[in-house]
Design goal:
Layout (H helix, E strand, L loop, with lengths): L3 E7 L3 E8 L4 E8 L5 H19 L8 E6 L3 E2 L4 E2 L11 E2 L1 H8 L3 E5 H12 L8 E6 L3 E7 L2 E2 L30 H5 L1 H14 L4 H9 L9 H10 L4 H23 L3 E5 L7 H14 L2 H4 L3 E4 L5 H14 L4
Parallel strand pairs: 1-4, 4-8, 9-12, 12-13
Antiparallel strand pairs: 1-2, 2-3, 5-6, 6-7, 9-10, 10-11
Helix pairs in contact: 1-2, 3-11, 7-8, 8-9
Length: 326
């Protein structure tokens, strides 16, 4: 009988759970909104989501070898404690691993969500077979995980991999972390939407403005990153200019990571990555232009492969912890 593992990806708006085997094949998955009204509601939501995935897979939670939980930081992975996540309704200093293990009847292990996704991609996804790599998620924010010499790198404090908060422009826009000029403040989905709002305020009357007004039902302030990519695909200003700017900043951040780590592969996931080569191709070119040629000769910058890297990666966390691997 194959060994089965559970993986849960906890986000500010949704919980995604999977049941998978040792080869990373997903046998069942489940999604639901994240309940943040109380610690008890959150724990019950996590448990209920995995129970539902188990039911679809024809397994009971207590039959799982282990369960991994990927959650937004800051957190203490060793003690299974969620410290002060910014997008979970003010919940803080919350034990997750131990109570969830009791509720499910299986060992449970906590890990930073971006680290979990990195393990997923470098074990079963676009990074498999590579011992030195970086996973980047380009979404509402920017996160990342570092896999060095085949192991997840957490640093002395356990907080390594916060690539979105590399400061690229010290006097730049304010980031959600309270600092200025972070990569996330310059190149995230929120940053792209902010730049689009400013550009649309300056857009004169004409066909382009009419296109935007029709798409956004007259509410130009409601523009999102998705709208910007739609405009770029249609050739409607300022879409192409905004995407070019976005790709440039993504490439600058990648170049810094290349100079520092000289990875063999950079895997790019998250919602913005769905734009494909329209974004990644330009960002790749910019990164290669800025980084040392000696550090990029064997470098590959590729899109993520897994449908649910966070949840599958959380299952990988359980596999590795049960084998005594960090």
């Amino acid at each position: 009988m194959k060994r089965l593992y559970g993986g849960i990806d906890l986000g500010g708006s949704k919980i995604e759970s999977v049941v998978c085997d040792e080869e990373g094949r997903v046998l069942a998955s489940e999604r639901r909104p994240t309940p943040v009204e109380s610690a008890g509601a959150l724990l019950e939501g996590l448990a209920a989501s995995l129970r539902a995935a188990c039911a679809t897979a024809g397994a009971r939670p207590e039959e799982l070898e282990g369960v991994g939980l990927g959650a937004p930081g800051p957190l203490d992975a060793g003690s299974g404690l969620l410290l002060e996540p910014p997008n979970l309704g003010g919940l803080r200093d919350l034990p997750l691993a131990e109570p969830l293990a009791r509720m499910l009847g299986a060992p449970c292990f906590l890990e930073n969500d971006a680290n979990a996704a990195a393990l997923g991609e470098f074990t079963f996804g676009a990074g498999r077979g590579v011992r030195d790599g970086v996973y980047i998620t380009l979404s509402t924010g920017i996160g990342g995980g570092l896999v060095l010499d085949g192991r997840l790198y957490r640093g002395a404090s356990g907080t390594a991999g916060e690539v979105g908060h590399m400061i690229l422009e010290p006097e730049g826009p304010l980031c959600g972390c309270g600092r200025r000029g972070c990569w996330e403040a310059l190149a995230s989905g929120l940053a792209l939407a902010r730049e689009a709002r400013a550009a649309l305020e300056r857009l004169p009357a004409g066909p382009e403005r009419e296109w935007w007004l029709a798409r956004l039902s007259g509410r130009l302030e409601a523009v999102t990153a998705r709208d910007v990519f739609a405009a770029e695909a249609a050739g409607v200003a300022p879409g192409p200019e905004l995407v070019e700017r976005e790709a440039g900043w993504v490439g600058v951040g990648m170049a810094n990571l290349i100079q520092l780590l000289a990875p063999r592969r950079i895997v790019v996931g998250g919602g913005l990555s769905r734009a494909g080569e329209r974004l990644l191709g330009r960002a790749r070119a910019r990164a290669l232009e800025l980084a040392f040629a000696s550090a990029t000769r064997e470098l590959e910058i590729v899109p993520a492969e897994l449908e649910a890297p966070g949840a599958v990666g959380a299952a990988v966390v359980a596999m590795r912890r049960l084998r005594g691997e960090a």
